[in-house]
Amino acid sequence: MRILVTGGTGFIGSHTCVALLEAGHSVIIVDNLSNSKREVVSYIEQITGQTVLFYELDVTDAVAVEAIFVKHDIDGVVHFAGLKAVGESVEKPLIYYKNNLLSTMVVAEACIKYGVERFVFSSSATVYGNNLVPFEESMPLLPTTNPYGETKAMNERILTDIVKANPNLAVSLLRYFNPVGAHESCLIGEVPNGIPNNLMPYMTKVAKGEFAQLRVFGDDYPTVDGTGVRDYIHVVDLAEGHVAALEKLTAGVHVYNLGTGCGTSVLELVKAFEEANAIQVPYEIVARRPGDIASCYADSTKAKKELGWVAKRDIVAMCRDSWKFEKEYID
Length: 331
Ligand code: WQD
Fold this sequence. Notes:
By secondary structure, the protein is an alpha/beta fold. The chain has helices at 11-22, 39-48, 62-71, 86-91, 93-113, 147-165, 199-208, 235-247, 266-277, 301-307, 315-328, and strands spanning 2-6, 26-31, 53-56, 76-79, 118-124, 170-176, 178-180, 214-217, 229-230, 232-234, 252-258, 264-265, 283-286, 295-296. The protein has a domain at 2-182 and 232-259: Rossmann fold (3-Layer(aba) Sandwich).
């Protein structure tokens, strides 16, 4: 199939493009490069040995997006493009609501107009809010702690209503947990702008000596050791989950958790990282980070049952690949 990947030069988007190409599909990437580099397109081509069409554009620009649908016979869309910094969304809610909602509506509108019936949406585990873990797809969504999470929940509702009005559409809402790691080539991986917000990219920079120590945000949560518990998933597993969701799509709306089903605390991840890479990660316990929840991990049995997908890479592989990328990636 010819797949339009919005945000395809981003962390998860680029790995998904590789997985799509390796599965025999062709890929058209649109991205405004606000949080990624154009070189990623050539890295994807280098990894797969295949050419990729790339258009620099903002997917809130309906005219620019429509031109892509006019020019190319698209079979499906994987929609990643969006702003994703939780903290930033609290400071700039209007930018997040406008960008993340409008981009989805523009792309969905073009799909309907040009008869593109397959749509995979990049959602997030954040939509579960403070539900009880492990999170199941059938759970009612609870208010999240930030506008970023709200845009994901709203986009899910928008797409669900669009399918009600256009029953021939096939939409998959993929709820990600915590993506980490990198492609074995180290050509693509997580390249955060500025100081990383997320745990793994911050930890690799502490290991490298860029930062003196890791700040552990709170050790008084009701968890195994008091630190936050998350479901870390290798980004290549996540990418393969997108291909499975796309290829198994049928009419209607389908929701899947893409996680491992295992919860790992911050201190457990630090220990796993140190052991996997034979390196020290100095840390200090500091105050909780506003907006954090204690535990977040998936029940991913639905994806296994319906998509035949399971995460194959364990926490050791995630730690090894994250560290290898930190050492070998040439910015
Ligand atoms: C993980 C744990 C922190 C940094 C976010 C988004 C989520 C998704 C993934 C997009 C928490 C602790 C972190 C640090 C720390 N993104 N931590 N020191 O917040 O679970 O999820 O990224 O979909 O939507 O919310 O990820 O890596 O920031 O935090 O102690 O320097 O590590 O408190 O317990 P998070 P994270």
